[in-house]
Amino acid sequence: MMKVVIPTMMLAVVSAYNPPLPSQRLKTSLSSTPPDVPFANQPNRRKALTHIASLATVGFAGLPAVAADSTSVVSNPILEARSIDNLLTPVPYTMEASDIFYPSCFQGSWNALSKTTNIYAPCGYELFTGGKVAYDNAVQKEVKDGDTLQYRARFVTQSTNENDTGTYVAADREYNAKEIAKAAMGSYSIVDVSTATPNRFSCVLAPPEGSDAGLVAVDILAIARKTEPITSNKFVCSEVVRQIVSPASKRNPNAPPTSPFSVKEIETISVYTIDGVVDENTKKIKCKQRTATYLVPSQTDPMMFKMYQASRGQPVDVRYYDVTYTRG
C-alpha cells in the first residue's frame, strides 16, 4: 500500500503513544505471515502510497471545513489528543465537511521535508504488512537511518460554488501526488491520474526502476473528515480514507475480473503550526502527523478476513512524522 511516510533522523522510542509489546497485546491464531503482494516488499512504493493517502491533510463538494484562519475556534477539540492516544477508540467523527479549508497563508508553492519519528505494530508483527522483516526494515531505514522524503507541495485557490462567489485554499492533489511519487519512486512513477477530487483520487503507478513488478491502480476514497481551528497560528485536521490497490488491468473493460491486492483504511491526523506571521509572508509551517492503518473485512480472501477479525478494529500500522514546509 502506499503510505504517506515522513521519515526521521533518529529513533524516538519515547513517545506519548507507547503501545504494549506485541506479546502483551492481541494473540492471533494465524499460522503464517500476511499474504504477500507485489508491492509488499517495495518500501519506496509503500512510502509513496502512504503519503498519497494523506493528500487531503497534507492537503485532500457543499462547503469546505471551517476556515482555519477564521475567528471561529473549536471549544472542545479532540483530534490533537487523539493523535497521541493509545488508539483504543474507533474514529469518533464522520464526513463533517466536503473538503479541508486551509489558512490563506498556505497558498503557493512549498518545499516539504518529512521525517518518520516512530513506527509501531500495535497488533503484533503478524498483522503488519510484510511481517516482522518489513517492520524491522522500515524502522531501520526510516527511523534509525533517518531516511527523509523531500518533495514539492502546492496549495491553490478553489471556488466554493459554480458562480465563483467564494473561494478557499486547498491542496493541489494531482500536483502533490505526482511530486510525492516522483520523490519516492522515480520521475515516471505515476503513469496516469484519472480522478483528483476532494473525495476521490485515482491513479496508476509504475514499479520503481529496476523492479519487475507490474502497474498497479490506486483508488483513495475519503470516508470521514474533520477540521479543528485551535488558534490563529495552529489548526488540526484529519481524514479517513479507504485505499484500494489493484492490478492496473482492472481498468481494462475487456480484462477478466480480478481481486484487489490490498484494501485498507487509513486515518491521518495533522497538527499544523505556522511559524512567525500568519499572512502571505509566512515562510515556514511545521506539521506533526500520525497515520493509523486499519484492516477491512474481505469477502473473497479468507486469510485477510481472518486477519481483520484478529485486529479487533485496532490499527495494524501506526506511524508518526515531522513535516516542515518552507516557502520557495
What is the H/E order? HHEHEEHEEEEEEHE
Shape: globular
Radius of gyration: 19 Å
Mean pLDDT, to the nearest integer, reads 79
Arrangement of strands in the largest sheet: 3-2-1-10-9-8-7-6-5-4
Query: Could you tell me the number of beta strands?
Result: 10
Structural class: alpha+beta
Proportion of helical residues? 10-25%
Keyphrases for this structure?
10 strands; single chain; alpha+beta
Mind sketching the topology for me?
Elements: H1 43-53, H2 79-82, E1 108-120, H3 131-144, E2 149-159, E3 167-171, H4 173-185, E4 190-197, E5 200-205, E6 216-231, E7 234-247, E8 262-274, E9 284-295, H5 302-311, E10 317-327
Antiparallel strand pairs: 1-2, 1-10, 2-3, 4-5, 5-6, 6-7, 7-8, 8-9, 9-10
Describe it for me?
- By secondary structure, the chain is α+β, with helices and mostly antiparallel strands.
- The chain is built from five helices and ten strands; from the N terminus they run H-H-E-H-E-E-H-E-E-E-E-E-E-H-E.
- The chain has helices at 43-53, 79-82, 131-144, 173-185, 302-311; strands at residues 108-120, 149-159, 167-171, 190-197, 200-205, 216-231, 234-247, 262-274, 284-295, 317-327.
- Strands 3-2-1-10-9-8-7-6-5-4 form a ten-stranded antiparallel beta sheet, sandwiched between helices.
- Strand 2 and strand 3 form a beta hairpin.
- Helix 1 packs antiparallel against helix 4 (173-185).
- It is globular.
